[in-house]
Fold this protein.
Amino acid sequence: MGNSSMKQHINTAQKTGVLKVSQGKLSEFPPSFRQLENNLRTLDLSENKFLILPEEISRFMQLKHLNLQKNKLTKIPDCIGALTKLETLNASHNNLSTLPRTLSNLIHLKQVYLSSNHLKEFPMMFCGLKHLDLLDLSKNEIESIPSDIAGLYVTELNLNQNQITFISPQIAECLRLKTLRLEENCLQLSAISPKILRDSKIANLSIDGNLFEPKQLSDIDGYEIYMDRFTAVRKKMF
């Protein structure tokens, strides 16, 4: 992106609070970004060449939407915890294997997209965020869902295409979880606790592509209770 083009983007962003500089070759923040520290609400840096998100990101404290997808990110700095107004974070299609604990500071997060990275452990720092509706962790390398998952407030959790073999029964205690996507993992039928079917609020459990046939779910105690929830949701939709 040339200097004149960048200047035009900056001028527009000063008026709108929206800066889109995607599909470029950026690997660091240009100095001109500093002009936007006090009024930028949306920053789209998708499809660039960032390896590490610059620490200057912490200066944009008015940000509500941050799009980092399709870069080459291996790290998000701890200082991202300063962006306490952030509502949407998209860092899918990167090379992230860990995440900073300071993400737990982002108490206004509503949607987080982390698909197609290299996360091996479930990111527990999202537990306790009471406004978080959607957490997309599909296409990672996560192997288990730990018991502390009970503190997650999402309504939809996408774990499709991971390597999950264990699901803590405590996931049934997630107060708002209605859609749980577990397609194409490494689950045996025994990994599905009756508590998940019987006691949770999950009304949409996607389990195709695991080490058992979906119809075998009916062999688990609590299946009829789950189907009652499933059917009730479908009736509301139509």
